[in-house]
């Protein structure tokens, strides 16, 4: 069954993570993605390990379902081919530093003239405007500048990044949202537009209660480990064989927790009678929870808490996540047959649609895998394609 974006053609100039994550999402939803890569080397992430039979597992994890066309955009013939692709494309996505596409004569202003219906998405570290727009950026830099590292980790003495490249990933997610919004608007107006997404903007957008806490108190939030600043107990608790997470979002759940761990004295302690007072006294409360729960293993408590309808869960390793029955039941781990790497496992799509489901249809392409197919579809002859190859245009 065709996905909801069936018939949408996306020209993908992105590399590494933010842009490829965006276009992978669009591919899962049914769009045709033509990934433009540098001849010889391709996307920078093709060099990132680990490698399976010479193919990057990193690259394969975020470029599934795409077609690869190698193209030298600095060559006149390469730009001609690109412009021919753009004429009937719906979307162009790039994550170069601002100004690069203009130097090539391929920025939004230029492409809009040949295709007024084009959606042009530019994803960058700091966006197309502002005093930092020309700066290079990586996920670590943006997590720090965006405030996320100032509230992550065990304490203020150890600045800590989030374990995944969340600045890149959220830029990819917000880029996809922007593209879909622009496509919907085009159905009403017939006009394309530019989507400008900055990684730093995305980090500010997801700071959530940290901004609310600062604006409400004037005090900079600091790292508090796995605790929640406004809900308690909402943290990791030690059992006899490891930690589990517990989240008591209201007083009724707190009272139920006290019953389950056989500590009725905590339920009647004035220090813990309300959520606010529990937050204030969490440094005193947590050791008592640890003491009570260290009497039994994690599995025992997880069973008891589930039976008592108190939200709780294990702290899984990656291997445990990939074997979790809920994850598997939701088709969130897929195996694809790659022409070089063999069978590779990739995450499924988290977007579940009832009538036009997202689908992972193909593995990531090898470099230039679809050169002949795409160029032939543009009307180039076999001889012309061989000429492009000889001249290193492709």
Describe the structure.
With 394 residues, this protein is α/β, with parallel strands linked by helices. The protein has 18 helices and 13 strands. Helices cover 39% and strands 15% of the residues. The strands form four sheets. A six-stranded parallel beta sheet has the order 5-2-1-6-7-8. Strands 9-10-11 form a three-stranded antiparallel beta sheet, with helices on one face. Helix 1 crosses helix 7. The longest helix is centred in the middle third of the chain and has 24 residues. The protein is elongated and about 85 Å long. 35% of the residues are buried.
Biggest β-sheet description? 6 strands, parallel
Class by SSE composition: alpha/beta
Strand content: 15-25%
Low-confidence stretches: none
C-alpha Rg, in Å?
Answer: 25 Å
Query: With helices defined by DSSP (H or I, 4 residues minimum), what is the helix count?
Result: 18
Strand count: 13
Shape: elongated
| Nearest-integer average pLDDT | 96
Estimate the helix proportion, in percent: 25-40%
Spatial separation of the terminal alpha carbons? 33 Å
| Strand order in space, largest sheet | 5-2-1-6-7-8
């Amino acid at each position: 069954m065709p996905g909801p974006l069936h018939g949408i053609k996306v020209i993908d100039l992105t590399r590494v993570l933010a842009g490829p994550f965006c276009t992978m999402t669009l591919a899962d939803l049914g769009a045709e993605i033509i990934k433009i890569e540098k001849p010889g080397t391709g996307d920078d992430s093709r060099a990132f390990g680990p490698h399976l039979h010479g193919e990057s597992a990193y690259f394969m994890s975020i470029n599934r379902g795409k077609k690869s066309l190698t193209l030298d955009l600095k060559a006149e013939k390469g730009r001609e081919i690109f412009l021919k692709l753009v004429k009937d494309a719906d979307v162009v996505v790039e994550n170069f530093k601002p100004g690069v596409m203009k130097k090539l004569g391929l920025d939004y202003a230029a492409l809009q003239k040949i295709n007024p219906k084009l959606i042009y998405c530019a994803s960058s570290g700091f966006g197309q405007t502002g005093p930092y727009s020309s700066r290079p950026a990586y996920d670590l830099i943006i997590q720090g500048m965006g405030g996320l590292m100032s509230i992550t980790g065990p304490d203020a003495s150890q600045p800590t990044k989030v374990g995944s490249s969340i600045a890149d990933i959220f830029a990819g997610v917000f880029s996809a949202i922007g593209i879909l919004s622009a496509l919907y608007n085009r159905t009403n107006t017939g006009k394309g537009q530019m989507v400008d997404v900055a990684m730093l903007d995305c980090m500010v957008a997801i700071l959530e209660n940290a901004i609310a806490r600062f604006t409400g108190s004037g005090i900079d939030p600091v790292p508090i480990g796995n605790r929640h600043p406004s809900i308690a107990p909402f943290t990791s608790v030690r059992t006899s064989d490891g930690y589990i997470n517990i989240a008591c979002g209201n007083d009724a759940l707190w009272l139920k927790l006290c019953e389950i761990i056989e500590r009725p004295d905590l339920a009647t302690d004035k220090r813990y009678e309300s959520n606010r007072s529990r937050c204030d006294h969490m440094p005193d409360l947590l050791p008592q929870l640890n003491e009570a729960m260290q009497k039994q293993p994690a599995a025992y408590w997880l069973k008891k808490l589930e039976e008592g309808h108190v939200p709780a869960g294990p702290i899984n390793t990656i291997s445990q996540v990939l074997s979790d029955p809920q994850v598997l039941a939701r088709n969130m781990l897929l195996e694809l047959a790659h022409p070089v790497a063999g069978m590779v496992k990739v995450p499924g799509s988290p977007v579940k649609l009832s009538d036009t489901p997202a689908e992972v249809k193909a593995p990531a392409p090898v470099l230039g895998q679809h050169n002949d197919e795409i160029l032939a579809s543009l009307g180039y002859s076999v001889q012309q394609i061989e000429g492009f190859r000889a001249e290193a245009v492709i």
